[in-house]
DNA sequence: AATATAATTTAGACAAGTCTAAAAATAGGA
DNA sequence: TCCTATTTTTAGACTTGTCTAAATTATATT
């Protein structure tokens, strides 16, 4: 249907649209795709010709309905494969991204529907991100950043914002994992750090970390 | 490491080397790859430059040691994925080839070793073909064509030579599957057909079929 | 051994996706 | 508003893998 490159662009635009509500700029897309702005312009024209994006010169791009559906389908595949790699093949959550980047481009509807069934229709991938269902519907977010959690309140780790290998390794090293309960003991105003309790261990956490960890409350 | 196209050529040369012991001809490779002879020549030059094949103009190609190892690694991946699709995801054996053609090019050593372990280190894929182990060793063949089986002798179906969808469908329709015991009741000399017994059913089989079905004896 | 036919290679072109360098458009500050 | 800095687009080139058409080499037949 669509090429590997086209799918990757659609995915990147989808993710960037959260921050660029009025349209994703060429430079932002170039940085996300680790390529040059001129290459982005070329590809945008192609996507536009295929009715996958809406584009007016110098005004940035936005996904069309078709483009959004396609992007969500790729994201669905990516997250299902990540779940498979962790739950069935015993990978760590910081090892799966690059492999899923390849697997997400395999073309077979039946493969994905059977995989979904085999995995028990999981709702979230190992990083806590929702897995779209076959109709493209996401589970609702219902999560806040740890940094937004008030003193003395508690919640459960449900996801990470930054899923870089370094950050995931840091979390593992400090025994922070999805599903674990976390309680805010103290918040320092001057540097934004906080003291938290996780499995009876007190831990001081920087603002950078608390800004990258999602918590489900109540 | 190597491109998708390069891997496909190596795999094709590997398979053709069984019939073309002295070197695989350009035309044979072109037919196998469903491309033109001139494209094959171009690619062979590239493979030769990468020390994957031995090539002298007009003399056909043969895999180098490196080329053979690479081809076997791709075949290992293909067959492990086929096994996964049938045994874990519930696919029929005639549906898996095209999907495995895509999955075989995913690059990750750990993915394959973990998949192998998850599947219980299977020795044969759903078509009865041996799955090379991590060192590239194949299980020994020990099989003959049904057409070579003598009257009154019996054996077990272990594989197919032609794994076209049509042929696999035909086998399913006639209740012939891998692992089933088959006995030759009669052989007709004039048309090569034979009467066989499979699960208490008598069945007349043409020579074309018996030439495409592998049997393990004793 | 000469010649016709078949197989193979070469030459030049094309599409996809990328790049560099230059041109054009936009945005922000005086 | 005008000018400058930034962003974006265009033009032309390159790589990979493919193609057609023509040239070359090998094979087979007499």
UniProtKB/TrEMBL annotation, chains A, B:
Function: In the presence of manganese, represses expression of mntH and mntS. Up-regulates expression of mntP.
Protein name: Transcriptional regulator MntR
Location within or outside the cell: Cytoplasm
Protein source organism: Autumnicola lenta
Keywords: Activator, Cytoplasm, DNA-binding, Manganese, Repressor, Transcription, Transcription regulation
Source taxon at top rank: Bacteria
Classification via PANTHER family: IRON (METAL) DEPENDENT REPRESSOR, DTXR FAMILY (PTHR33238), TRANSCRIPTIONAL REGULATOR MNTR (PTHR33238:SF11)
SUPFAM superfamilies, sorted: Iron-dependent repressor protein, dimerization domain (SSF47979), Winged helix' DNA-binding domain (SSF46785)
Domain spans labelled HTH dtxR-type: 1-64
Lineage: Bacteria, Pseudomonadati, Bacteroidota, Flavobacteriia, Flavobacteriales
